[in-house]
Amino acid sequence: PEAKDAIILSVRSSDDRLRNEDCRRNIFHIPPDLAMRADALAQFLIWKQWRRWALISGEMPKDKDYAAAVRRAAARFGGKIVGEKTYAYVAGSRRTDTGHQQIQKQMPLLTQGLGGADVIIVADVEESFGDYLLFNTYEPRPVAGTHGLTAVSWHRSYEESAATQMQNRFERKTGRIMTERDYSAWLAVRTFGEAVTRTNSAEPGALRSYLLSDKFEVAGFKSQGMNFRRWDRQLRQPILLAGPRALVSISPQEGFLHPKYLTDTLGYDEPESKCRQRN
């Protein structure tokens, strides 16, 4: 209750519920949610004419949430999920249950009989098995989702729009690459600083009004100014599609249109939002 008038910038969670049923009027979301990530990936797959998808998900709650976002994206953009499987990870003896021989046998069995899919989408947020799917599928198929081709807000391979300078400055300062979490934290600080500078105020009400206004825009090295959706306080932004070491594409993809913001083709648009704390 004591934080009801504060401004909270979330930099860690991609949970769809925090933008919908469990939204709060004072929480602004910097990282893209699961729906935005799944939609970004779906647009690219449809652009590639890879419309037949197989979905393999883990059993953890976050895995199920990501799988639900993929099903929503398929229905939204014309993809077809032709096969679904669940992988049950059971921790056992590391001396007998691990090793490339076991993986080389298990993953082909897991990916067999998936309806002739063009691509295998994995929902393994907890990172139990997704890495093992690459090059181990029963049929030669690309892997996307939480592993393989991933949808992220930042990636070490991204060098466009002066991002190279940003990456280099961070690495000189910290001695390591800039992760997606680092980028979200930096962008949150920049967002708050921009609002304080432009309003010349530190009063939460004035800052909140400005952040939700048409005047607000924050630069984030993505070729366009970014702002917040009024209905769920989610930051609009392009989504990077990257492999382990290279940038593949950026969504929204060409041809996916919206009457106001192209980035609103990613995630929950205003008519779809279940957030009731909009003002």
What does this protein structure show overall?
With 279 residues, the protein is an alpha/beta fold. It has helices at 34-47, 61-77, 100-110, 163-174, 180-199, 204-211; strands at 8-10, 27-29, 52-57, 80-86, 119-123, 143-145, 149-152, 218-219, 225-226, 239-242, 247-251. α1 packs across α2 and α5 packs across α6 (204-211). The protein has a 7-stranded mixed sheet, with helices on one face. The mean pLDDT is 94. Helices cover 29% and strands 16% of the residues. The protein is globular, with a radius of gyration of 20 Å.
Observed structural traits:
single chain, 279 residues, alpha/beta, 11 strands, globular
Look at the helices and sheets and give the structural class.
alpha/beta
Helix content: 25-40%
Label the overall shape. Answer: globular
Largest sheet: 7 strands, mixed
Strand residue content = 15-25%
Please provide the count of β strands.
Answer: 11
Order of strands, main sheet, comes to 4-3-5-6-7-10-11
Counting DSSP H or I runs of 4 or more residues, the number of helices is: 6
* Uncertain segments: none
N to C succession of SSEs: EEHEHEHEEEHHHEEEE
Mean pLDDT: 94
Give the N-to-C terminal Cα separation.
Answer: 17 Å
